[in-house]
Amino acid sequence: SNAEDAARALLAGDLAALGACLSTYWSQKKVMAPGSEPAAVGEMRRRLEPGLLGFTLAGAGGGGFAMLVTKEPNVHAWVREVLRDCPGVEGAQVGEVSIDFEGMVVS
Length: 107
Hints:
Layout: H1 2-12, H2 15-32, H3 39-48, E1 52-58, E2 65-70, H4 76-84
Antiparallel strand pairs: 1-2
Helix pairs in contact: 1-2
């Protein structure tokens, strides 16, 4: 399943595969829930696409958040720049996160 593929990708540290799983999930969600991608979100996704390995939305409508896996690390400024000129997502905030592949170490 896609969820199992995502777990394997995460465990392997394979961000390209993880991103593909996120995008697969988003494509499946749009089929199961028509209208789940407002026009502004579709436009945002299209504008960000050149720099992405994967994209999905989380939340139950009325806001939520987009989760992006980017091709390059630390491109927060680029994402902000793309969003600044994207109609319908005015005021969007960009959170900076990373994946810790080492996990917790107890010494």
